[in-house]
Amino acid sequence: MKFRLLTLSALFIAPAAFAHPGHTHHNALVEGILHPLTGLDHLVMLFGLGILISCIAATKSAAQYSSSKLKLSLGAAALVSLAIGLLVGSVVGAVSGVELMIAASIFVVALGIWNAFTSRESITKFLVTASIGLVFFHGFAHGVEATGSLTGFGAGMLISAAAIIFAGERLSHFIAHSALANKWLSGGIAASGVALMIAS
């Protein structure tokens, strides 16, 4: 188990710039699907958000809710935040400070995962809300970089983002909501944020 977690952390730590490489496809839907996968900052944050959503659904404070409904509602809220950011970014264009907010989102998600299995429920809830809110800036960056039909690009982006969040949720579920294991993942996500800031 520890080997798997260390391997995953090492993958997250691999340095990559915030800039996305150019795509060779001319289909807006394909471009949208590929876009979150070609920026490690977006990939790590959305993957971490999936882990955080799974952690929250497993806590005692969430016991009164249906786990699947809570995961679905939090995931849907993140996708709505992403879509709104996409629309705003496509209209407003490049704005300074967005990349800083994207970097901050990685650390907020990592802190949320780290804190999820503690007794500080109010802090955890705040970090979950903040993480979902910060997804807006990822959408904003996608909107600035959108190519072709915004509808097709947006649909592809949301499909890809949903798949990444789901993958993170499944990984956390796979490790049986172990507080120690999730803290290892939290450390990997935070370390990848540091690597991304150094590389950018």
Number of helices: 8
Q: Outline the biggest β-sheet.
A: none
User: What is the number of strand segments?
Assistant: 0
Give the fraction of residues assigned to helices.
over 70%
Q: Into how many domains do the coordinates divide?
A: 1
**In what range is the share of β-strand residues?**
under 5%
Transmembrane segments: 43-62, 74-94, 100-117, 126-144, 150-168, 180-199
Keywords: Membrane, Signal, Transmembrane, Transmembrane helix
Protein name: Urease accessory protein UreJ
Organism: Vibrio algicola
SSE layout:
Elements: H1 2-13, H2 28-38, H3 40-58, H4 67-92, H5 98-115, H6 121-145, H7 150-174, H8 179-199
Helix pairs in contact: 1-8, 2-7, 3-4, 3-5, 3-6, 3-7, 3-8, 4-6, 4-7, 5-6, 5-8
In words, what does this structure look like?
It is a single chain. This protein is mainly α and 200 residues long. It has one domain. Helices cover 78% and strands 0% of the residues. The chain contains 8 helices and no strands. It has helices at 2-13, 28-38, 40-58, 67-92, 98-115, 121-145, 150-174, 179-199. α3 (40-58) packs antiparallel against α4 (67-92), α3 packs parallel to α5 (98-115) and α3 (40-58) packs antiparallel against α6. It is globular, with a radius of gyration of 16 Å. The protein starts with a helix and ends with a helix. Residues 1-24 have low confidence and may be disordered. This is Urease accessory protein UreJ. InterPro entries: HupE_UreJ.
